[in-house]
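JOB MANIFEST
job_type = single_chain_structure
chain_count = 1
residues = 244
[input]
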Amino acid sequence: MTVDNLPDNPPSSARNAALMNILQDVPVPGTEQTVCENRGSGIQDMLQALRAAHMSPPSFTDRLTSFKVVFPNHTLLDGEAVRWINKLGEHGLTDSQCIALALLRLGEPLTNPRYRAATGVDSRVATSELQDLVARELAVQEGVRRSSRYRLHPDLAAADTDVAPPEPKPKRRADRTDEILNALGDDALSRAEIQKRTGLSRPVVLRWLGRMEKAGLVKGSGEHRNAIRYRRTGQQRFGEPDRT
């Protein structure tokens, strides 16, 4: 049992199983409750209550000889946070992604377990939604796989976060279409080669290649996903000069 898997409804493990079995059948005088339920649902009830109140998840610290739980004393999705998220102008964000952005706005780095604790989604959904925030350039990823941590994208961070929470810049999110088209030129490039030429991250490149394929600006070909090479179709963006 680790702190990271506490949000995943861990099984109850009693040090004295015989005593626990007795206590779960002993009623508290004057109530319909028993002394102990022996099902390990306390942490899940705690997380669900905090989610219902739109508050941050608790932090757990396990030091072998002691176990500490720290509860937040602030509402996560208050009116100010909702206005901040709306100013980002990003369409299609899920409720759980909005919760994640509110946490990132407060300067808290996110991990997959922390995301699950705050939102209640499973590990697969958490990974997918965190990667989508990176692709939208709302968050940046540090580390890989299980050591991954996510922070608010630097473009959204305020100069002095000790004075006020970061406010999104008024400009629209960067359109990476021209960067990728210019990187392609007349060549057929793999996703990794496009990353190298543009300096963009993998999630960002994949997001924009998907958009550009739907718009008919590029076309990918190849038998295997990792071997796909992308080429300009020759179709022009609105307002783009004729390359010929």
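[summary]
The first strand starts at residue 59 and ends at 62.
The beta strands are 59-62, 67-70, 139-142, 149-152, 189-190, 218-221, 229-232.
exit_status = 0
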